[in-house]
Design goal:
Oligomer: heterodimer
Largest sheet of chain A: 6 strands, mixed
Distance between the termini of chain B: 46 Å
Shape of chain A: globular
Radius of gyration of chain A: 27 Å
Structural class of chain B: mainly alpha
């Protein structure tokens, strides 16, 4: 019984005869559409024979230009040309500013948190921009295949959260596409390779795209693809390599960091060209204005080393999550254009102690896999030999419990579909209602997790505290969408409130739809990190202040008090800013200078405890 | 309630010792026949049924493939569910627990990565011993108390292993 529909209700398509379905890789840098034709999955080309559609959209007053032409115009018309829009999907304006890079657009606040880009054609949301890319791919597919599409499988990074997935789905709908399934990109890549090579065993898919990084560990057995674990970083990609080079150029050329959008774009384009050239060259020449310089591959490696290290860390974590050792991974598949960088290949090869597979074009492999799955889902294959994808939920789902803590009901990396129940009880005599708050995230405190929905179970018969047994059931379907139901077992009372999904309405309502989604989605990791540091700092300051009041005179001398006071003052100043790392470091510093104080207090407490007083008395 | 026995779903008799490879093969076979992807063009009721079948199959597999979850489930089948939180008198093990915790803290303070790996191996050994002991006693009603004690020890080890993994992640930073 679905009492609470958090995501879109199950409006699965019902194809009746063999119909046309495509796989779409909606990438940060490039997008592709592929289809299965006469048993062979291949990307579809445009009229000029190009397979890759750069994910670039340029808005003119009267029309919209998508692809290579738009990309070329980026430097001369930066305000009206949107690149890498995928990085903005499902994020609020505050989140976007936290991405830590200078985006050359004029962002407009609007009435919601959603970032709108102000163009000559009016305000454009990231969802609309993505929809414009998808429309071109849809038209290309319909022209090539000669008919209307029954639907599409659209790939998303495995690590995309609920808001990012919904934004992608909304964009597809806005482009007039019926979404058969959102498929995780690494899984799609595995399908492409699995088909090709009849592979068996444990495979790691390392997917470094323009803006996102994904790592998935899969077990392949007789056409069954079991995702064992997935992880990644939804804000790490080849774009960051470009930014690293551009940053180096700015420093070398002595430019001010505050550049106009056109200059930023020119710098990024030179940086990207240099990155690509360094795949085959060991030294490239760069120039900007009257500055000229040379970048060696060696130095480039130094620039990107910390970024690549972040991806390797996510790999180790995914392997641990899969419950295996690195040595048990039998093949490593490389996906995404950024895996062409030789240092990336080398670092991955070293981590897994084997050469990664690069046989299928890393730019095409995801779309090819998606096309195969789209054909199956459209109902075109029923021979019992078709592939089966057993995917997992990328983030933990749970409930708020006493004290603002998250109780995980379905941990991350659980195979879906899944249903799981958890029993709770009342904590007050005669309690007749219970609030159920559903969240998504890995952190222990609910303030660090994304709130998905709240509802109330009413009409529990009055009993003594702890006597009622309330069973809350979570169910995640194959699309990764969640239903939650609550029931008191003794009386059979069920929660009767249904929270309508904030998505899935008419296309014309897309703006309102997104606004609603953000109401639930909160904000993204970077913003969360800052808030978390601020909260930590606040807590530490309060604790130190309280301790000083009680024991400061007794246990510290004047110098020690002065040092602590100074560090506290600095922390207060940093807290007002938005540099999470600086706050964290200052928290550490303050902790260090108060360590001895804490130890002395503990000593005093233990002594007092031995003297027969309780710790509580002392703290009071 | 009316949910089928996890073992029955796999056509197995309740047992503690399982061939995990065989279990995995059977799981894939069953998953293939009930997965919602097979019913993408079926009517809503069939889709719903596929979803429920798949979910209970996945749940059953999760329980059966994990040794301590399987042990706990077996005791539940035999004589009622184990209470989640009880104060247990298990002095001998308590001492061991404290020792392990102290070791873990030392490993954390010294950021001793090879030490963590060795510690993990020892925990694995301790778990294997518990499994052996459980296998020998769980079917005898007279030894129920001992079997329950062993399951609690297994659960403690699971928790500790989870903390070791978290430590590994922190040391990876």
């Amino acid at each position: 019984m679905a009492l609470l529909q958090i995501a879109e209700p199950g409006q699965s398509p019902q194809p009746h005869q063999r119909r046309l379905a495509v796989g779409i890789d909606l990438g940060t840098t490039n997008s592709l559409v592929a289809a299965l034709r006469s048993g062979l999955a291949a990307p579809l080309a445009d009229a000029e024979g190009a397979v890759i559609l750069p994910s670039a959209v340029r808005y003119h007053a009267e029309h919209t230009e998508v692809g290579a032409g738009a990309k070329l115009a980026a430097a001369q018309d930066p305000l009206n040309t949107v690149l890498s829009v995928k990085r903005l999907m499902g994020r609020g304006l505050a989140d976007v500013k936290q991405l830590g890079e200078q985006l050359p657009y004029r962002f407009v606040d609007g009435e919601s948190d959603m970032p709108f880009i102000d163009t000559v054609q009016g305000l454009k949301s990231p969802v609309q921009v993505s929809a414009d890319i998808l429309k071109v791919l849809r038209q290309r597919a319909e022209a090539t295949l000669g008919g209307e599409l029954v639907g599409a499988v659209i790939t998303v990074p495995a690590y995309f959260d609920e808001a990012q997935r919904q934004a992608t789905k909304d964009a597809a709908r806005l482009a007039g596409l019926n979404v058969l399934r959102l498929l995780n990109e690494p899984t799609a890549a595995a399908v492409a390779y699995g088909l090709d090579q009849q592979a068996q065993g444990v495979v790691a898919i390392y997917d470094l795209g323009g803006g996102t990084f994904d790592i998935s560990i899969l077990r392949l057995t007789g056409g069954v693809f079991e995702v064992m674990a997935t992880g990644g970083d939804s804000a790490l990609g080849g774009d960051d390599f470009d930014h690293a080079i551009a940053g180096w150029m700015i420093a070398e050329a002595g430019l001010s960091a505050d550049l106009d959008p056109g200059t930023q774009r020119t710098l990024l384009q030179s940086a990207c060209a240099a990155k690509e050239a360094l795949t085959t060259e060991v030294l490239v020449s760069l120039s900007h204005g009257d500055w000229q310089g040379q970048l060696s591959r060696e130095h480039f490696i130094r620039l990107i080393e910390p970024l690549v290290a972040r991806s390797l860390k996510a790999c180790r974590r995914a392997v641990r999550d899969a419950g295996i050792e690195l040595a048990e991974v039998e093949a490593v598949v490389m996906v995404g254009g950024s895996t062409r960088v030789p240092y990336v290949r080398q670092a991955v090869a070293e981590l897994f102690a084997r050469q990664p597979l690069t046989d299928i074009d890393p730019d095409q492999v995801v779309a090819i896999g998606a096309a195969v799955q789209a054909d199956t889902l459209a109902g075109n294959k029923r021979d019992g030999e078709e592939l089966l994808l057993l995917d997992v939920n990328p983030l933990s789902l749970g409930l708020e419990t006493m004290g603002g803590l998250l109780e995980k009901v379905i941990p991350r990396n659980t195979t879906i579909p899944v249903a799981r129940a958890q029993d709770f009880t009342t904590y007050k005599d005669g309690q007749t209602a219970m609030m159920i708050h559903v969240l998504q995230g890995e952190r222990e405190l609910i303030k660090d997790c994304r709130s998905l929905a709240r509802f109330e179970l009413r009409g529990i018969p009055p009993m003594v505290a702890g006597a009622a047994k309330i069973r809350v059931t979570f169910q995640v379907d194959a699309d990764g969408l969640l239903n939650v139901a609550a029931r008191e077992l003794g009386s059979g009372v069920e929660a009767s409130i249904q929270v309508k999904p904030s998505y899935g309405l008419a296309d014309g309502e897309i703006t309102r739809m997104l606004k609603d989604s953000f109401q639930y989605a909160g904000d993204d990791k970077a913003a969360r990190v800052l808030r978390e540091q601020q909260v930590d700092a606040e807590r530490l300051l309060e604790a130190v202040q309280a301790a000083l009041q009680v024991d400061g005179e007794r246990l510290l001398d004047a110098d020690e008090r002065a040092v602590i006071g100074l560090q506290m003052e600095q922390l207060r100043e940093l807290m007002a800013g938005d540099d999470a790392i600086a706050i964290e470091q200052q928290v550490k510093r303050l902790t260090q200078v108060t360590d001895a104080f804490a130890a002395r207090r503990l000593d005093a407490t233990v002594k007092a405890g031995l003297a027969g007083r309780s710790v509580n008395e002392i703290e009071d | 309630m009316g949910s089928p026995c996890h073992f029955a779903l796999f056509d197995l008799q309740p047992a503690f010792c399982l061939d995990l490879d065989q279990l995995a093969a059977r799981y894939r076979e069953l998953a293939r026949s009930v997965h919602p992807d097979r019913f993408a063009d079926a009517d809503v009721r069939e889709q719903r049924a596929a979803l429920e079948h798949s979910a209970s199959l996945n749940e059953a597999y999760q329980v059966l493939k994990n040794t301590s979850a399987r042990a706990r489930y077996l005791l539940g089948l035999r004589g009622g569910e184990l209470p989640l939180e009880v104060t247990v008198q298990d002095g001998e093990f308590l001492l061991q627990q404290m020792q392990w915790r102290e070791e873990l803290e030392d490993l954390q303070d010294s950021a001793d990565v090879p030490g963590v790996a060795a510690f993990k191996q020892r925990l694995k050994g301790a778990a294997a011993l518990l499994h052996e002991q459980f296998a020998a006693c769980w079917e005898q009603p007279a030894q129920r108390e001992q079997a329950e004690r062993l399951v609690r020890r297994m659960q403690f080890l699971d928790k500790l292993s989870f903390e070791v993994r978290q430590l590994e992640e922190r040391l990876d930073d």
